[in-house]
Specification:
The chain has 202 residues and is an alpha/beta fold. Helix content is 35%, strand content 18%. The chain contains 4 helices and 14 strands. A 5-stranded parallel β-sheet has the order 1-4-7-10-13. It has a 5-stranded parallel β-sheet with strand order 3-6-9-12-14. Helix 2 packs antiparallel against helix 3. The radius of gyration is 20 Å and the shape is globular. The two termini are 31 Å apart. The relative contact order is 0.09.
């Protein structure tokens, strides 16, 4: 299985029109000042794979995008380390830049997301850094599918999404209250498990 996985990675790297190759090419062009070409390559990537990968991002050459990078959105204020894998429909965004002509009371530190080496990010994950803030995903961390991350994640920690809640349209108020209480208890247990995992990782 390990040899097969390595072979798959090598074959993906040979394919020049893979989303990773196009992304790295747009980044290289942007750094050399060819912003028109960089934007054109970015748009080609968007047309082929329905993603939005900023050429201003700092990315390691061995980044891997699952399912051909479909639906992945990565903003410009993102730093991605080595051997990171990102699955489909992931959003990595660090605040928004001030609009043209928008008044600022004081200069702000730009928001940033830093993803360290060997991180795995599951499908439909959203990582949002607030304006002027930095979120760091620690080395070897795992972000489970559907999770929304707004704070730092310790190295080797695992983040999971909360359990879904079932709302019964025809249920009585008493039944709804019992269902909500059960969901809250389940969420509290999951949070306790997450905190225990994070403490063990540190």
């Amino acid at each position: 299985p390990e040899r097969l996985a390595l072979l798959r990675i090598k074959l993906t790297k040979l394919w020049w029109f893979s989303p990773e190759k196009l992304w790295l090419l747009s980044i290289g062009l942007q750094r050399r000042g060819h912003w028109v070409l960089a934007f054109s390559v970015k748009q080609l990537n968007t047309v082929l794979y329905h993603n939005s990968l900023s050429p201003r991002t700092s990315v390691s050459p061995d980044v891997l995008l699952g399912h051909y990078g479909h639906g992945i959105v990565v903003g410009s204020q993102v730093v991605i380390g080595r051997r990171v894998k990102i699955w489909h429909n992931v959003t990595l965004t660090a605040g928004r830049s001030p609009r043209r002509g928008e008044a600022q009371s004081a200069p702000r530190t730009p928001a940033q997301i830093i993803i360290e080496d060997d991180v795995k990010i599951g499908a439909n994950v959203v990582v949002i850094a607030p304006r002027g803030g930095t979120i760091r995903i620690g080395r070897g961390a795992r972000i489970g599918a559907g999770a929304v991350v707004t704070h730092d994640v310790p190295a080797r920690a695992t983040v999971v999404a909360p359990a879904p809640r079932v709302l019964l349209a025809d249920a009585s108020p008493e039944e709804r209250t019992a269902e909500e209480r059960t969901a809250e208890e389940r969420t509290a247990e999951e949070r306790t498990a997450e905190e225990t995992t994070a403490e063990e990782a540190t």
